[in-house]
Amino acid sequence: MKRYASNNPYLESARHLPWLPRRARLRAMLPTLLIALLLALGCVELAGQRITFSHDVERDELVFLIEYDGVHDSDDVAVGDEADVRTFVQGREIMILDWPFHLQMAEFQREIERIVADRQGDEEPIPATIALGRFLVANLDVHFLGHYRDPAGRIGGAQLVIVRGAKEFVRLANRAISEGFIADRDESIPRTSDRLQEAARAGAEWLKLEEHGVSLTLPVHDREIQAAALAAAQQLLADPWAGHKKGNVHGILVLVQLAGSAGMSLEKKPGTLVLRLGNGKDPVTLRAKLRERYKPNLEAVVVEQVPQSFDALVAQAILGEAKPSPELARVADLLPAEDRVRAMLLRAKSDDPAQRKQALEWLERESERWNREEGIPVAPGANPSVEAYLEAWAAWYYAALAM
Q: Which of 22, 176, 181, 355 is the most exposed place for a label (fewest CB within 10 A)?
């Protein structure tokens, strides 16, 4: 199997965090529990990805709908990577923003168990990062919902991920964050590091969950952080395209889209930064367009491993034709608008005239609702040409993906 250095645009953007030391840059890019698990890199790539999440307060669960848009191999011939896809599905694995952020659950569990076994007899408690990993191994559920194709025919896959015990997960995550700040002091921002370490030793509640969102609160030294942010911006403007791989969306643009799509807001108070994702009332969707290129060299194995049509199931659920499976029911309220439209575009191409009529009528109603309540991108109006009408909805779909 071919292995290569990462072409991930998110990883490329790490160089624009110049005020962070190398280890801190890694923590800025990765969830703490995955730092030790950047395993061998394959050639599987995504055209884009969307992650929608919500906090089910009643069940005390975090629910994620992860969608892998445009799954393909970076080379013309997918030598060996069909096996990666099979292992990915069968092993209930997770990938965030391309293969470098690929969590192999079996390897993850073995690594956690090995570290815990090695520490038996130690007087010191298990590190918070490892405790968080053990919690995830015991409380992470992964279900594959099906495959789908965008209007251009590029294949993707939908996945449901549930973290049981959301409150405990956040508590352990906050401990792990504190542990990281205490262990890795950043001397390039000493005054801010003093504040971070003081808060960490006091048991700071860095992360807070809302029903539809999350916030991160950091104590900072105002002028020091302002100067660091200015230095980062100057470096970026001086050489914005250095190290950027042709064909990938620039890493900074990926980060900007992720922030914008998730409704990210930054609140600055004296001595404090508060970063929020979501508006608190709607599920949060993070969208990332990673690259333009796509090759249909993994389509067969994706369909083989995830044979259900996700869009067919979504259309049936929207129209009340069939009771959704327990897994699909968990994401019914999380589906981004573009998913519902994509499902109806598939239905509109059915050989059954009645199904085509249902889909077109739904799209007309959705156009009115969307333009009344949301408005951007503008949904297509009525058109006597069904073909042109569906093409306009396809254009709307891609415009929605870019937001």
A: 22
